[in-house]
TrEMBL record:
InterPro entries: NAD(P)-bd_dom_sf, Sc_DH/Rdtase_CS, SDR_fam. This is Short-chain dehydrogenase. Belongs to the short-chain dehydrogenases/reductases (SDR) family. It comes from Actinacidiphila glaucinigra. The keyword Nucleotide-binding does not apply. It comes from the Bacteria. GO terms for molecular function: oxidoreductase activity. The keyword Zinc-finger does not apply. Pfam families: adh_short. Keywords: Oxidoreductase.
Amino acid sequence: MEALRDARVVVTGAGGGIGAALARRFAAQGACVVVNDLDEGAAKTVADEIGGICVPGDASAVVEPARAALGGGVDVFCANAGIGAMAGAEAEDAVWERVWDVNVMAHVRAARALLPEWLERGEGRFVATVSAAGLLTMVGDAPYSVTKHGALAFAEWLAVTYRHRGVRVHAVCPEGVRTDMLRAAGPAGDLVLAPTAIEPEDVAEAVFQGIADERFLILPHPGTGAYYTARAGDTDRWIGGMNRVQRKLEEGSGA
């Protein structure tokens, strides 16, 4: 990972959880790290800890101020900020639009701002924190599941379109991770994610191994790939299994 020494790195949603673990890991490799988060206090705490640069604010508009803070360029962009809704089809449009904006459009806007620079110099790295929900689904949260599928699709499109021009793309798809988001997932998170949850640092380690191996799909949980294969190989059987999980969730909640 010598190539990451002195690399200019941006991590969104880095005030805690996976983002903070990524920021710490990049800094440990000698990278210059911009720590971005809506929570300015949390971002500053992490930035001070790692000797990074705090650039608070919306992840959708971070590229230009981060580029300026890093002296004019970005080498690695970690599109890590994400939100859930724990809602179904009944969620109002405003909820769907907010989750879509953070989980998908923030990635699109970042790529739009970064690609001219990366294509001109023939290199750049885009790391998208997607979630296993983008490969599979998440019971109890339609906006999260749908937008994470969208985030994966966009990352895949970037890789297909620009790999031969030096742009490397990684889609990070963990299952449960012990973060505030998991704690906010309620009974669905307790049932599906908590039993096999890992630490944010485990995700960061998987990301660095994936970068070293130049793998597009990074799966911090070893069983995710088998689930993904099963889903593709027999989709009806997969849906039946997930529907049993949904029924178990409803029974537990008294629905």
